[in-house]
Design brief:
Blueprint lengths: L1 H10 L10 H76 L5 H84 L8 E6 L2 E7 H4 L9 H14 L5 E8 L13 H18 L8 E5 L12 H7 L1 E8 L2 H7 L1
Parallel strand pairs: 3-4
Antiparallel strand pairs: 1-2, 2-5, 3-5
Length: about 325
């Protein structure tokens, strides 16, 4: 579970802000935020439900114990009542038999009879109170059991959805690893030619040095870069569960020419050239790939040296797992 939550955190940085397709990136960010919020809420509700279920079970057990004791008291009260009633009937018969006996005996029996009448009424009231209490506890017990059953069903459903979510996250993690391995294998011949494939924050970054793709200040792709891009396109053209972003990055040296206004322009045009080539010559679906320019603002190496600037001039193809299936689970 911790590993899944870690992957969710990793997915939090899945959507980057692009210069060209702002609407697409905003939609991805909203999807991710909703996913994170729903996941946390579901987890909190599950923990709250577990605590509530334990409390209700304790109440239910206490109520059952009290119910059993009340039922036992009621049965004992009934036996006592029947015993008193039998005594009353015996005395009543004796009273009638002795009604004509001496006055003293008659008075004593009358007094005893009245006492037993009062005692019988009191026993009746006690019995009625016990029966009423028993009926009330039966209703409370039935209500509590209904609530327990409903809560258990709800918790099982939430647990099922959490398990489904964890399975999807694990499957996405595997697909990221498999795709990275596939790209690494297909580009093994370019290992020392300015191409790297890394997995970071739940995404795959295919980084290509500008020296492989473009001449200085140009946006036309060099033949060496075209060969590498075709291999990448071959690995990605049938990809379904990833969003594909092509980002152009420049160094911090200001750029301006007749056709290029600044570093923003250069980074966007280079990313667009790569996307155009991968969709036309590489036969990738243009609906699945987005070009974006980041100018000089996300350097790999912040040092102010020629080597650092060369390292920062690059094209990054960023592959981000889609969140659609995860969001369907949380609906």
């Amino acid at each position: 579970m911790k590993k899944s939550i870690h992957l969710l955190c990793i997915l939090a940085m899945c959507t980057t802000i692009a210069c060209v397709p702002a609407k697409k990136l905003e939609d991805l960010q909203v999807k991710y935020d909703n996913l994170q919020s729903d996941f946390d809420e579901m987890k909190t509700m599950k923990e709250y439900g577990d605590n509530t279920l334990a409390s209700l079970r304790e109440q239910y057990a206490a109520l059952e114990s009290e119910y059993d004791q009340t039922k036992l008291d009621c049965q004992e009260q009934k036996v006592d009542f029947e015993r008193t009633q039998a005594s009353y009937e015996i005395l009543n018969r004796n009273y009638k038999n002795l009604v004509n006996s001496n006055e003293t005996t008659k008075n004593d029996l009358r007094y005893e009879l009245e006492r037993l009448d009062k005692q019988l009424d009191e026993k009746k009231r006690e019995l009625f109170a016990k029966e009423s209490s028993l009926q009330l506890k039966e209703k409370e017990s039935a209500k509590l059991k209904t609530e327990l059953d409903a809560l258990e069903i709800s918790l099982k459903e939430r647990e099922k959805r959490v398990n489904e979510l964890e399975a999807k996250l694990a499957a996405q993690e595997k697909s990221v690893k498999d795709l990275k391995d596939k790209l690494t294998t297909s580009l093994i011949g370019y290992k020392n030619s300015g191409i790297s494939v890394v997995e970071k924050d739940g995404k795959i970054y295919v980084s290509l040095d500008n020296s492989l793709l473009f001449k200085s200040g140009k946006t036309d792709i060099d033949w060496k870069g075209k060969t590498a891009l075709l291999k990448i396109a071959e690995s990605l053209k049938d990809l379904e569960d990833f969003d594909i972003m092509v980002e152009g990055h420049t160094d911090n040296v200001p750029m301006k020419s007749a056709s290029i206004q600044d570093n923003w322009d250069l980074s966007v045009l280079r990313a667009t050239s790569v996307v155009r080539y991968m969709t036309t010559e590489g036969k990738m679906d243009a609906k699945k790939i987005i070009p974006s320019g980041r100018s000089k603002y996300i350097p790999i190496n912040p040092a102010k040296t020629s080597d650092a600037r060369a390292e920062n001039r690059r094209i990054e193809i960023i592959l981000t797992p889609k969140l659609d299936q995860l969001m369907d689970i949380l609906k």
